[in-house]
């Protein structure tokens, strides 16, 4: 089960975040959480259409997967009220904890280095 859950997180990164396949969200998230995931992912990808995440570490135990990621992208759309800068952020650290039920994500919680992202974009 832990490997299957890690595969779901890999698909989230590869197919949804990196490739922009929003239709895959419904396969990876439980129905109750999928709409919220789309409300976060879609505008982020609109702001940073070339976003690319790398999986640094995935650790799984029982019904949880913890992922450490590096995220990069170019600010080409409005993000958090900030007009596009055309600048690129690189290798921003992110850590997320995903909880699973029946092979789907039912809860996600994370930390991102937003300050470093703002600094690299010239917004702070």
How would you describe what is shown here?
This protein is an alpha+beta fold and 124 residues long. It has one domain (2-120): Roll (Nuclear Transport Factor 2, Chain: A). The protein contains four helices and four strands, in the order H-H-H-E-E-E-E-H. It has helices at residues 2-18, 25-28, 34-47, 114-120, and strands at residues 52-61, 64-74, 88-101, 104-112. It has a four-stranded antiparallel beta sheet. A hairpin with a 2-residue loop joins strand 1 and strand 2. The protein is globular, with a radius of gyration of 14 Å.
What is this structure, in a nutshell?
The protein is of the alpha+beta class. The chain has helices at 2-18, 25-28, 34-47, 114-120; strands spanning 52-61, 64-74, 88-101, 104-112.
Q: Which secondary structure elements does this structure contain, and how are they paired or packed?
A:
Layout: H1 2-18, H2 25-28, H3 34-47, E1 52-61, E2 64-74, E3 88-101, E4 104-112, H4 114-120
* Residue share in helix: 25-40%
CATH architecture assignment name: Roll
Structural category is alpha+beta
Reported for the largest beta sheet, the result is: 4 strands, antiparallel
Number of strands: 4
Rg measurement, Å: 14 Å
